Amino acid sequence: MIANYLGWARESPGTAAVTLLPLVPLTYLVYLVTVVILWPWLKALPSRKALGLIPGPKGYPLVGCVIDLIRTPIHQKMQQWVCEYGTIFRVDLPAASAIVVTHPEEVARIIKVERFDKFLQGYGSMEMLTSTTMPNILTVPMGPYYKALRKAVTPAFSTANLKLFYPTVLKLTHNVMDHIRGLGEGAAIDMDAAAQRLTIDVIGRFAFDRDFAATEFGRNEALETVADLMLGLQRMMNPINRWFWWTKESRALVATRRRFDSVVSRALADLRGKPPAPYCLMSHLLGVVDPRSGKVLSGEQLKAETALFWIAGFETTAHAIGWTLMFISTHPQVEEKIAAELEAVGLLAMPGAAAPREVEWGDLGGLRYLNSVIQEAMRLMPPASGGTARQASREVKLGGYTVPKGTMLWIPVYALQRSPHVWGPDAEEFKPERWTAATTGASEADEDEVVRSAGTMSARGWLPFSEGPRSCIGQSLAVLELRTSLAMLCGHFRFRLADEMGGCEATVQAARQHITLKPGDKGLLMHAIPRAP
Ligand code: HEM
């Protein structure tokens, strides 16, 4: 029979193929169960045994805790477990046991002192961005290529470069404000979607020196393609879709990747004819020499890198703007304090008064209260809520337990930043005041403050941008976008969460961790009431 199927039997091959056809899916299924579940499970047995003393939720045979993580939104499940099991516990996954670490000092030790590299098996879907599956700055191990890339692109996020780019951020935010004004205060506006239009245009300009024109608020190819891509990548996190490549979802992802690939390729091709603007990320990437080949990056490498920068920088920042506005719109006393701060420096629109002046670079560090509001919103709703995963490159002691070399160390940021063990009994409350003391380190004249602002907080348990050598390289740009857009929006409008959202808590509960921490199906509907009609 098998001989027939393999084509060794020459007689009546048609009949043989028909008879044996059902064997194909069956064989594939056996292959999958063996390769994807049984083999990794067997391989992980010694590490499971070594970690057996560390407490943690009880999983199911073979699949471990995966079922719990699918049933409840993953960020919420991790938060429940942190409350239940404390700052160090074990979670069994099919292929390995992970140690979940939310003790701030241990976290800082893992990512900043020991500098363990990423646990890269978890990053596979981020290599599926373009039609060529290729590692990128996020997914490549810490070797000579990574170091060359990081070194070359770091200057793009420096104070000097961001200052050159600042007028573009201002202009794009004005586009968004004009659109909001045009809709009128009766309209319920999805402010997360509006922020996505702003941040995709920012990335278009910053990465490719290209106008994606999303802030013109019409149908938009770049926005639609990337939204489909994010959905597709999210679906690929489910191993069923990844392994059953003939499903509708898998085929849709292949088509979307081609579309995205073509948007990125066109943007890169257009840059060949003219030198990119000096602030443009591309002018830094074009000079990178891959130490492995001694040559500048190939077209495919450039595509993989720019695609990653685009994806990493656009939705994250948009959600951070959206979630911050959501908290402001539901906390009137916070909004009043922001208004008072803006009024004091001439940035608040008021009825009967002259229009406020433009927000300047020098204002950004000085808006201390607004900056604490942003920091607190990013604590409660960190866009990269899943956090980061590291691999212990040697045996390490964590919370009194011995963790063997090779173990996955998972730092779930949403759970960490809401942990009562770290933040006390009011961990779940939105209290910007907890930051006002912490953000007073910089003076208004300190121009590097925008660039530095987000760093060095892991010891306190705040790390939405991660920290250490593999922290977010784009955080200075993200902070710039957040501060500028929120100062401008709050200076010209008061925001109220629309009734259909059901209030702050319901909106938080509806959030889903789909690569980033997104609002639920309704988006973030708000009314924007002009301060000076
Ligand atoms: C509020 C906005 C943002 C948040 C919350 C955020 C968060 C993060 C986090 C947590 C990481 C570490 C991921 C890990 O360990 O796996 C990261 C890495 C990264 N981010 Fe961001 N990010 C934001 C905006 C941006 C922007 C605007 C850009 C660029 C334009 C960017 C580019 C990157 C890149 C390239 C990496 C990989 C860095 C490396 O491994 O060396 N991000 N980001």
Automatic annotation (TrEMBL):
Transmembrane segment boundaries: 20-42
UniProt keyword Zinc, yes or no: no
Cofactor: heme
Protein keywords: Heme, Iron, Membrane, Metal-binding, Monooxygenase, Oxidoreductase, Transmembrane, Transmembrane helix
InterPro entries assigned: Cyt_P450, Cyt_P450_CS, Cyt_P450_E_grp-I, Cyt_P450_sf, Cytochrome_P450_monoxygenase
Binding of heme, residues: C472
Keyword Oxidoreductase: yes
MF term (GO), any: heme binding
PROSITE patterns (alphabetical): CYTOCHROME_P450
SUPFAM superfamilies, per the entry: Cytochrome P450 (SSF48264)
Annotated family: Belongs to the cytochrome P450 family.
PANTHER family: CYTOCHROME P450 (PTHR24305), CYTOCHROME P450 12A4, MITOCHONDRIAL-RELATED (PTHR24305:SF166)
Name of the protein: Cytochrome P450
Organism: Edaphochlamys debaryana
Taxonomy of the source species: Eukaryota, Viridiplantae, Chlorophyta, core chlorophytes, Chlorophyceae
